[in-house]
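Bit of a strange request maybe. I'm writing a small parser for structure token strings and I need a real example to test against, not something I typed by hand. Could someone generate the tokens for this chain?
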Amino acid sequence: MSALDPAISGSATAEGPTDGQAKGPAEGPAEGTAERTTEGTAVQGSPAENPDLARIVDSFPGVDRSVVLADEHRSDGRRSWTAYVLPRRNEAVTDDGAALEQSYVEEWRGVFDHVYGASAPGDATFDTRGWQSSYTGAEVDDADMRAWTDDTVERIQALGGRRLLEIGCGTGLLLHRLHADAERYTASDITAGAMTRIRDAFGGTLPEGVELFQAPADDLSPVPPGSVDGVILNSVSQYLPDEPYLDRVLRQAVDVLDDGGFLFVGDVRSAALNRAFAAGIELARAPGGAPAEKVQTLAERRCGMGTELLVDPGYFTDLAAALPRVAHVAVLPKRGRSDTEMTRYRYDVVIRLDRIPGGAAPAIEWTPWAERRPDAAEVRRILVEERPESLGLLDVPNSRTAADHAAAELLARPDGPATAEEALKAARAAVGRTVDPEDLFALGDELPYAVRLSWARSQPDGGYDVAIVRSAPDGGPAPEPRFPSEPAPPRRHVNAPWFSRVEHLNLAKLRAHVRERLDGQEMPGRFVVLESLPFAADGSVDRDALRTIHWA
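Reply from user aminoacidic:
Good idea to test on real output. This should exercise your parser:
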């Protein structure tokens, strides 16, 4: 956990408005889950595009081009619209995007050099400065940070591994808790200050087996190929500039891993859940009487102009096709009871190379959760009394995220609630029965079963799948279930946050501009700021590709 590459892990730092972090320059939609709001589609037989609205949007000085598409079929038979907006680019973006990518990396280096340059805390092994809640702006409570750290350490320790490499180690939050059980612990960070902090915490001399080197995340040249059996990249991905950079990091990580090794990518910001997260933040910050449209505008700005990398789980599930050594990919919601954005909205990924230690579990019979709607107590009863070899549940509604998702959908409706307070009440009322992921995880702590939860299908409301398999009788690794990853909602996997460094589109002024020029037409419910327009083979704008952008 550290900065940029070296990411500070956690939520936001004190450098201005945050996106939840240190701030610097096989089933379709849930079957039968009536309590979950859904993303609608165009009414069959009706126009799915509104060129008249697009012309109004295009007339705003800061807009280069827009496409306005139908979003929802409403109960009153009318339609909601989403405006996909490409801002006018300045020369820096159009002429030298590669330089901007590198500038993004260097800016994060500067942020964390500043953070690590301050005086060390009393406990140098637990340095969590810069971790602030995106909801309140206050520092995340020490107890919540310790719980988050302990859960992460426990998840990594369960993977085994005696020769570990941590990319982006920061001040050693994980290193101090993992190195004693390792034969060798090598750690890198982009900042010299992080290296100094770790050495100072050990009294100036590193323990035997601990090695450090300073480098960005995409430079693992000091590590020989096949020399480690575990690579840790925790709370780092959000500080990388784009998908090609992330690709380079993971490919190099695979190269340094020995046969049968693992890659742990922790605390990843979910592109699939970004709209829900942004709506929850802005509603938490807004006065109760704030106009709902203003809250929606702020949420749109947070989504479309954020400065951190968002990664859809589909990026990781696709790695098996991209990297031949990948044997298994697990996309895991975070464990824990703390009500923080890390627990609610981040996820971990475990990538096993070459083989699965416990082998693959026999085929699981998957049942939509909505058929029986069991809570954790009922699942426990089934395991204790019926003693099945396995149990699989699809699309379990998530108590951590359901209300924020409902709020995001309500705010995007032109006929939705008028104020922030009304939106909050309506969102809470729209949520039916849900299950806390930790209630199910905890069953594996007391019963002879391995409990696995998955976000592989990246549902926008945070719904998850559950596989429970009987533990190995000899106490060895439990077999790993194969979760369905398709069909999942179409997704573009990764954003490019460095675009936002040069965007100055004022969404509040854009909305006012459009509203003043409406002539009996309905206001778009959402404005999605684009990094680029997707084009089809014939040169036309690819409307279907636009609909895959779900982080904004």
